[in-house]
User: Fold this.
Amino acid sequence: MTRFTHLPWERQPRKGGGFKNRETSEVMEPIRELCRRLHLRCERNATGMAKGVKSPDAWLRLHTRGTWDLTVYYPEAGCVVMVECKMPGEGLEPDQAEWGKIYRACGLEMIVATSVHEFAAELEYIRRRREQERIDDLHGIKRGESCVPQPEAVRTL
Assistant:
């Protein structure tokens, strides 16, 4: 019996002998499967340390603490979506909230998902919103507005 046996995020043994928590099995893995079915590139951002492959005593540093769980590349919407998987009722940790501010400042889309259904709905919302933004940009160009800023002297001619 381990110290994780009675906690709500109890770690479950995997087929290969490792352990995973409920957040991974109930939220993250279904989201990754949906991304595969939608032909979206989805990368897991594991944090912490991992043993090296070539040398048994070598350790590799993975992503820093607070990095969100998944990076989903969404070409149809023309964006990158950062996904944090949470069990229902849980909120972001301070490190994750800090990374969220960085992602937002870099112009990335973000989803905090508690289920695969919530993720799918948010992904569709992002696609529609960004499509509408592209349409609005095109209408602005058709009305005679230029994408390239013009010097004042050229505009007045």
About this structure: The chain has four helices and eight strands. The chain has one domain: 18-143. Strands lie at 12-13, 19-20, 41-44, 49-51, 59-61, 70-74, 79-85, 109-113.
